Amino acid sequence: MGQDKRRPLLAANWKMHKTVSEMEEFLSSFLKMVSGIDDRDIFIAPSFVCLHDMVKLLKGTQVEPAAQNMFYKEEGAFTGEVSPKMLTSIGVSLVILGHSERRHIFHEDDELIGKKMESAISHGMRPVFCVGETLEEREKGLTSTVLKNQLSRGLQGIKESDTGRVIVAYEPVWAIGTGKTATLEQIQEAHALLRSEIGKLAGEDIAQKVRILYGGSVKPGNIKDIMGLDDVDGALVGGASLEPESFAQIVRFEEN
Ligand code: PEP
Fold first, then answer.
1. Measured in angstroms, how far is the CA atom of residue 249 from the centroid of ligand 1?
2. Closest CA to 48 of 90, 76, 10
3. Ligand 1: nearest atom to the Cα of 175
4. Residue 81 burial by Cβ neighbours in a 10 Å radius (0-12, 13-18, 19+)
């Protein structure tokens, strides 16, 4: 790579798990386990119900709260949605967008995700932009086409100079929550492709700075090898982030 490795980022996506009291219990153990670790970024995306309390509990720690989703408008008649203005007003600037569960269960398409990306950037937020192919697409040899399309559509409303604020997450759909991790070769190949496409869209300097996370059945037992790959800068973790011990082991990946 010929450049310093980017700062590692270990991210928890709690999906629709944990009540407020379960979140408090998690943090009271987890924060002790990671105290003093300041050479990497850590964030946790809880449900919206937990988010405001989490913001307060994380004040003064190195762990950042994140949202799992948002709508692109600031306010209005959009029942059930949460806006960038609401998130930033409570101190949340990280937001996961385009997660495969949003794409596949809730039918969010590239156009909607692109609008959300543009809105996040224009509100000074840092989107964690998820891309990834389904098993069927991989088996048909369409992985690179799918990744290139998702990436370019998600970034199309964003100025080149703002692309550096985007965090990309490569999450092969077939590896999410299935216990099936992509092989190291598959991960590195997809990450290198994404970095090279970011280079074409926003320039090589930005491409070298953008962090690309891997997500899909990351566990304490596989994180060290995954983090050793040249173009992997972190992980987006679902199931294994729900227990403080297991997420703390992922955060301290070198020790596994
Ligand atoms: C995710 O939700 O982004 C994810 C990768 O889930 P899991 O780690 O459970 O596969």
1. 16
2. 90
3. 10
4. middle
Ligand 1 atom closest to the Cα of residue 218 is 8
Cβ atoms within 10 Å of 53's Cβ, excluding its own = 17
Q: What residues does each domain of the chain span?
A: 3-255
Fold of 3-255: TIM Barrel (3.20.20)
231 neighbors 209 (Cβ within 8 angstroms): no
Residue of 108, 133, 171, 197 marked catalytic: 171
pLDDT tens digits for range 67-106: 999 999 999 999 999 999 999 999 999 999 999 999 999 9
Query: Does residue 99 carry a catalytic annotation?
Result: yes
Cβ neighbour number for residue 42 with a 10 Å cutoff: 24
Residue 2 burial (10 A CB sphere; 0-12, 13-18, 19+):
exposed
Please tell me the distance from the alpha carbon of residue 73 to that of residue 77, in angstroms, as a whole number.
Answer: 10
